[in-house]
What we know:
Layout: H1 4-12, E1 21-25, H2 30-42, E2 48-53, H3 56-65, E3 79-84, H4 90-103, E4 109-112, H5 136-159, E5 165-169, E6 192-194, E7 200-202, H6 203-226, E8 231-235, E9 240-241, H7 254-267, E10 269-270, H8 271-283, E11 288-292, E12 298-302, E13 324-325, E14 328-329, H9 337-351
Helix pairs in contact: 1-8, 2-8, 4-5, 5-6, 6-9
Amino acid sequence: MPTLAAAEASNAAWAPSYVPVAIIAGGTSGVGQGIAEALARQTKGRAHIILIGRNAGAAAKIIASFPKPVDSDGDQDWTHEFVACDANSMASVRRVCAELRSRLKRVNFLVMTAAGPRGNSITYSGETDEGLDDHLSMRYFSRYLYSKELMPLLLSAREQGQHAHLMTVLGAGHDMPIPSSDLGLVEARRTSIKFLQGVVISIAAVKGVLRGVAYNDGLVAWFAAHHPTIAVTHISPGHVRTSGSSMAAGWLLAPLAWLFNFICSFIMISQDESAQYMLHALLDADRGLFIRDNHGDVVSAHVFSPDYTARFVDDSPTARKAGLLNGVPMKGYGGSDATVAALINYTERVLAEFK
């Protein structure tokens, strides 16, 4: 496990010859904000940093804090900007991606951190205006859509010999299996557990929190195997002190939530400290699939040959064995070739409705 000092030293050694382009979806708060700020400091502001989110006011304050390079020749080769997007709306995500593709020639880093206003709440689950589970919409569907739609820009960066890294920040390393039924949690939303005084635990919310992790394993497996020339990472931020890190519960469970949050205050790390570990993981990879923990350590990794041909549903006896990606054992990875293929097919059918 690298110490904070080791992660910071590793980050400090990174000095690209080009102006990096970074898109951070969820960059207006929490871990995403921390990563954006760390990248801005590391590059001394000489980077094209795009924050995607809903809070323009928060974005303006963050961008104002970035270092602003002084260009002696008068040519400004850096940009810091905010792009508004409601990641609960797949139509909105698709429009934003189309706009970015129309004006950007490459993207070096695509980082996705948005988890929604309810975060890890287990007391409520519903549907978005588009009919998607409101936990999975931001924790998975929007991330899949960003990955697919912006992949050409990552590949362009790689073709120019530059860093090209897709990173999703959620809950890597827990061997969370991808189920074979009720992928959209439609059936789960019909079930809840009622406690005293009407306190309700939503089964769909619990499953949404857990399945978001599993589905992100499937996401990185799919894109890493199909695009072996770039780096693809699922990473866990661990317990981080952010404005959305508190446990949410009904009034009857408030004492339990208070105790939980009190204990977590001693085991959580700061947003800035977490960002250094996340940045270390972002810079410490050339190509391949990476499952990483909250300190940026590699739980498991596999580098495919540049001409690798992905396979997910085949006649091999291992196609349904969890923890194997195209026959390669991956510690901390919960997918199987068959369940990943089913998940992606389901995802494509769902997202086809939002164009």
